[in-house]
């Protein structure tokens, strides 16, 4: 039979606030009963709550089990008469009653008999009585069955003057907040504070801001509108801990938040916010990191936490929001992690502008949204939190790994370019061979389709290799030879000399078949290594040299990213393959990929 | 017809091929008139007996007869320099792959293997 911590129940029942915090852990008790409490009808989730009776062999007290421990009940780890050691508990005072919440425990033994004959603890005034058995007749003798204990409420009412030193404030866990109790105070850290946002719709306009508050028991979102913004926005600082009371507890609007809590706080004019200086008991960020390689399993629009090394920082760009017609700054980062995958992550607004990390730091992201643009991408949303070089174990591991071997590794990218957007990158994982391209009738439907392939140039149609183009930057329109000059219809300007640009038809082939690809200026530059002007000049000057140049370009292999689309030309509809990107082969790189392919399960 | 088979090997595979003609892609570590010490793609060192055989490049493929597990009598060499760098790890991967049974039909094997 296990030895219970006799006297703990009585202390829990009697001790004032400060003592409870210290009584938190290490005590052995027996769970006399576990009962599911019906969720309140307004709660939208089906989270069960369990009320438990804990006994120290001498007395019993009621407590609630924190929802994070629900699994222990569900898989039978804890049940009637299980002996456990409490690792962490909290106590909140509800009007005159105290409610103990067990936040963490571990099981010592199960299937024991009920130890001792616990009774309801004596009703007391403030001073905690010594932890000794007192057999006076004023005690309520406990009935045999513990279930009926569960029904009656053996918690003796406590006078509210117990906790001292903080103006009558007794701290609630965030988990315990509900709309039915108004006299609470929470002690929480601001893990995230949003910018002030203004809105205007048919009903009017206003401004608001959000904060995410976190304590050991959970997280909750708080929102303040209009006048409250002026009052409280400056008061809240990210990373600091505050006592908050007299805010309204409402049902959470899940659309605006991705936190787990059913409720959220409305910060009002009479909400009190006081900075707390002893912050040790409030935890820092809690993460649930996902490996980048398993991002594919997550559906679009889900949120997740990731941690990785920033391998690349994109330039600051801008995007115009179709909805609001405003330009929003954005910046792409590429992060990698130990699963050897890389993914793009987008920062927006001020964060994009202010991002300045010259080295390659480890960054942790909480609550980023998963997108499926070109495979998988990540995006910061208003409630996402980015922490550069966090002081957590995963960050140190990543740092060590990257500095050691990560810099040389080739990462598998999540940008697979197959989701129909005009993504022109070369995607090695989805390469097709030419007969496959033709058989799958890519481009035969009305939409343009994309593919990547590796092929060798067999023949270039040398009759029409380039055209005279308008030299104006950005305008590539064909210019007409007026004799006195070359005129561009679009720019309405005449030039002495045009700038030639490549327009070529090339027959390329691989082991499976052959196809005709159309290349533009970029393709020509890659194939010939000379500008179209130069090649045009060679053609005019010396035909033999021109032919030699054409021959030299044949037989060279390239990686192509192509766009297949149907074209109607003089009543004839054909699929045309345009080259959107052409790259020379880095044989070393390609060989490595081939070796990997051969070692992969596909090749076995 | 196929008497002149020479498979590419690394230092570990020399002992299993004594007396056979092999090709060894390697990096030249030390060169003297009669002997060269080279490093094979798996990192092992091999002695090459190289009377009259030219071995002046940094990376070289030695074609020769296996004397013992750490010596080859060279018959000819091919320079392999590619701008001074050759990824020996990649070379080793390829060598090991050629010996896999699933590729028996692709690569000629020695008569009695």
What is the topological layout?
The complex is a heterodimer of chains A (604) and B (113).
Chain A: H1 8-14, H2 17-22, E1 27-37, E2 49-55, E3 60-65, H3 70-74, E4 82-94, E5 97-109, H4 147-151, E6 171-172, E7 185-193, E8 197-201, E9 204-214, E10 219-225, H5 227-232, E11 241-245, E12 248-251, E13 263-267, E14 272-275, E15 303-320, E16 327-336, E17 341-348, H6 349-354, E18 362-371, E19 377-379, E20 385-388, H7 393-404, E21 412-413, H8 434-439, E22 449-460, E23 466-469, E24 480-481, E25 486-488, E26 493-495, E27 499-502, E28 504-509, E29 514-519, H9 521-528, H10 532-541, H11 543-553, E30 557-569, E31 572-584, H12 587-599
Helix pairs in contact in A: 10-11
Chain B: E1 7-8, E2 21-31, E3 35-40, E4 45-49, E5 59-68, E6 71-79, H1 88-98
Q: For the CA atoms, what is the radius of gyration of chain A?
A: 35 Å
Largest interface: A-B, 7 and 6 residues
Head-to-tail CA distance between termini of chain B: 17 Å
Shape of chain B: globular
Counting helices, strands and paired strands, the structural category of chain A is alpha+beta
Q: Could you report the average pLDDT of chain B, rounded to the nearest whole number?
A: 88
What does this entry look like structurally?
The complex is a heterodimer of chains A (604) and B (113). With 604 residues, chain A is an alpha+beta fold. Chain A contains twelve helices and 31 strands. In chain A, strands 6, 7, 8, 9, 10, 11, 12, 13 and 14 form a nine-stranded mixed sheet that branches. In chain A, strands 1-2-3-5-4 form a five-stranded mixed barrel. In chain A, strands 15-16-17-19-18 form a five-stranded mixed β-barrel. In chain A, helix 10 crosses helix 11. By secondary structure, chain B is mainly β. Helices cover 10% and strands 38% of the residues of chain B. Chain B has one helix and six strands. The longest helix of chain B is centred in the last third of the chain and has 11 residues. The two termini of chain B are 17 Å apart. The mean pLDDT of chain B is 88. Chains A and B meet through helix 12 of A and helix 1 of B.
């Amino acid at each position: 039979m296990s030895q219970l911590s006799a006297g703990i129940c009585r202390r829990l029942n009697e001790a004032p606030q400060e003592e409870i915090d210290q009584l938190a852990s290490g005590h052995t008790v027996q769970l006399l009963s576990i009962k599911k409490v019906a969720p309140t009808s307004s709660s939208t989730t089906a989270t069960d709550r369990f009320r438990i009776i804990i006994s120290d062999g001498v007395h019993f007290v009621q407590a609630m089990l924190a929802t994070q421990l629900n699994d222990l009940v569900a898989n039978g780890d804890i049940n009637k008469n299980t002996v456990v050691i409490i690792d962490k508990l909290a106590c909140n005072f509800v009007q005159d009653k105290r409610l103990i919440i067990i936040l963490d425990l571990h099981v010592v033994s199960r299937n024991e008999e009920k130890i001792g004959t616990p009774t309801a603890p004596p009703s007391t005034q403030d001073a905690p009585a010594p932890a000794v058995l007192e057999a006076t007749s004023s005690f309520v003798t406990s009935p045999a069955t513990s279930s009926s204990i569960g029904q009656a409420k053996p918690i003796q009412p406590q006078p509210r003057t117990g906790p001292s030193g903080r103006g009558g404030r007794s701290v609630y866990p965030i988990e315990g907040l509900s709309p039915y109790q108004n006299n609470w105070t929470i002690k929480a850290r601001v893990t995230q504070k949003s910018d002030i946002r203004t809105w205007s719709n048919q009903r009017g306009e206003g401004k608001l801001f959000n904060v995410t508050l976190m304590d050991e028991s959970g997280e909750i979102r708080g929102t303040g509108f209009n006048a409250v913004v002026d009052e409280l926005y400056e008061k809240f600082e990210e990373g600091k801990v505050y006592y908050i009371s007299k805010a309204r507890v409402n049902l959470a609007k899940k659309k605006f938040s991705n936190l787990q809590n059913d409720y959220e706080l409305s910060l009002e004019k009479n909400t009190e916010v006081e900075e707390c200086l002893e912050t040790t008991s409030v935890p820092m960020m809690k993460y649930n990191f996902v490996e980048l390689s398993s991002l594919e399993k997550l559906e679009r629009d889900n949120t997740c936490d990731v941690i990785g090394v920033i391998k690349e920082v994109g330039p600051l760009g801008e995007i115009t929001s179709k909805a609001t017609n405003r330009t929003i700054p954005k910046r792409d980062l590429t992060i990698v992690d130990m699963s050897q995958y890389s993914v793009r992550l987008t920062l927006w607004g001020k964060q994009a502008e202010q991002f300045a990390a010259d080295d390659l730091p480890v960054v942790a992201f909480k609550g980023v949204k998963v997108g499926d643009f070109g495979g998988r991408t990540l995006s910061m949303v208003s409630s996402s939190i980015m922490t550069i070089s966090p002081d957590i174990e995963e960050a140190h591991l990543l740092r060590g790994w990257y500095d050691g071997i990560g810099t040389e590794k080739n990462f598998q990218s999540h940008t697979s370019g197959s989701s129909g957007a005009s993504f022109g990158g070369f995607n090695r994982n989805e390469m097709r061979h030419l007969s496959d391209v033709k058989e799958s009738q890519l481009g035969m439907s009305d939409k343009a389709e994309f593919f990547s392939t590796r092929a060798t140039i067999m023949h270039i149609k040398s009759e029409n290799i380039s055209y005279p183009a308008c030299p104006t930057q950005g305008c590539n329109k064909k210019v007409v030879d007026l004799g006195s000059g070359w005129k561009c219809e679009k720019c309405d300007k005449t030039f002495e000399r045009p700038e030639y640009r490549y327009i070529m038809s090339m027959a390329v082939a691989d082991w499976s078949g052959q196809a005709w690809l159309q290349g533009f200026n970029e393709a020509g530059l890659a194939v010939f290594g000379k500008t179209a002007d130069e090649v045009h000049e060679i053609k005019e000057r010396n035909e033999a040299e021109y032919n030699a140049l054409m021959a030299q370009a044949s037989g060279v292999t390239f990686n192509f990213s192509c766009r297949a689309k149907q074209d109607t030309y003089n009543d004839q509809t054909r699929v045309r393959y345009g080259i959107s990107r052409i790259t020379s082969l880095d044989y070393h790189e390609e060989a490595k990929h081939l070796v990997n392919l051969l070692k992969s399960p596909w090749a076995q | 017809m196929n008497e002149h088979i020479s498979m590419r090997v690394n230092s570990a595979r020399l002992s299993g091929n004594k007396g056979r003609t092999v090709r060894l892609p390697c990096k030249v570590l030390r060169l003297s008139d009669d002997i060269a010490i080279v490093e094979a793609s798996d990192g092992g060192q091999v002695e090459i007996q190289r009377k009259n055989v030219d071995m002046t490049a940094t990376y070289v493929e030695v074609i020769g007869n296996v004397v013992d597990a750490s010596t080859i009598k060279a018959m000819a060499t091919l320079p392999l320099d590619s701008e001074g760098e050759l990824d020996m790890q990649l070379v080793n991967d390829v060598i090991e792959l050629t010996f896999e049974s699933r590729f028996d039909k692709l690569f000629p094997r020695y008569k009695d293997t």
